[in-house]
Every structure is written in C-alpha cells, then in structure tokens.
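Section 3.1: Structural characterization of target chains.
Under the original work plan, the team committed to producing a structural model for every single-chain target entering the pipeline before any wet-lab resources were allocated. The record below documents one such target. The sequence was received from the expression subgroup and is listed exactly as submitted; it comprises 245 residues.
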Amino acid sequence: MEGFELSTYGDAIADLFDDFGWAGDPGDTEETIQWLADNAGDGPVLELGVGTGRVAVPLANRGIDVHGIDASEGMLGKLKAKPGGDRVTVHVADFTDFTLPYTFSMAYAVFDTLPFVTDQESQIRCFERVADVLAPGGRFVVQCSIPDPARYDRGQRTQTLRVEKDHVLMTFTRRERITQRSAIQFAVLGAEGIKFFPMYVRSVMPSEMDLMARVAGLTLEAQWADWAGRPLVDSCQRYISIYRK
C-alpha cells in the first residue's frame, strides 16, 4: 500500500473511531483496562498507539500516571477533547523510534497495535525502545491476533462486519504470505456514499514476538489467551504476552 505511514489510518478514522472501533476490536476493553490498572505498578505507564485514549483516559481517571505515544495528531486531538483527556501526557511520535526522559513501570500495546508496524526491523526497534524506558523489573504487555491463513482465499478476503439501518461496515483485504503483510480497506457504506479508511499491517505469531522481545533483552513472563489468564492453545484467535525487563 503505497504512501501508508503510521499516522495514515489514525488521521483518516479519528472522527469515527469511537463510534465504530477498529475492525479487529476483540470486545474486551473493560477487561483490558481492569488488568492494566491492577498491574500498573508504581507508574508511570506508557501506551503505544494511544489513539483516542479509550484505554489511557480511563486509566488516568483512576489516578494512574499515563503517557501515550501516537503519530496521529487527529487521534490525539480526540483524546485531548475527552473529559479527563488532559490527565494523559501525550507524545506525538513514531512509537518504533522514540526517546523519552521517563522511566516506566509498564508499557503496553493492545488491540493489535504492533502489527501496524509493517516490517520486522521496525518491530524489533520498537521492542528495543520500550526496553530502554522500562524500569528494571518493568513489563511490556502486548495483545495481538493470531494469524490464520485459512481465512484467506488466494490471498484475499472480503468481510461484512456490521449491517445497520443507515450504514454497512466492511473490510477488503489482500495478504502477502512472504512478508506477512496485509493491505486492508475498512469501508463504511452509507447514505452519503462510501468512505475508505486504509490499514496496512504485518501479523506476528507469538513465537516471533517472543524472539523480538529476546533480541531487545526482555524475558517472557506469561502468555495467555485472554485477561483472565486462560491458557493459549491452537484454537485461540488472540494472545496476550507479558515481557519483563
């Protein structure tokens, strides 16, 4: 997908994001917030791809010192406008290559944020930058979908996500097996016409994620299917990995 940058999707969908959510939203936002709040440590904590703050703002409203990185100023504008948004310290930056004058007890990238980094070297660099700003014993928490090649017919997939009275939500995907990248159009078909929101992602298996963490000097502490700690098995669609410095 030519011309796609880390900020492209966020800037395009910022006005609609909180209404529609991301196409791969697992629907466990409240469980995510609760686990992160319970395990934030002494803080501060850092969210990669903070977006409109659907996790960061509730955490900050609980008294946790939350910092968020995002390359999309459109998304960050929505975050700042929310009640409590001013409690989140935001950094306009590429979360694959950043430096911050802070030390964090926890960093996290949830709801398939890391796959928006579309090459392995940049994903490794992201792990390295996170390791640089974690306190000793600090954790990096990652939540991602498990790639399923069977979802695609000859490298492509069309999916209807939602059918409402006044709009339809669909995704159109082309997948590259070698690079593990997928070019996606998240489309809203409504009375005013069709609006496209491009996504470009690189999926990562849990074993590859573990290896990138090891390269960055982080150790796998736990790996689950959900926030309740259910064991990860072949039938699972998503995984949560917790790495410790």
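The two ends are 35 Å apart (CA to CA).
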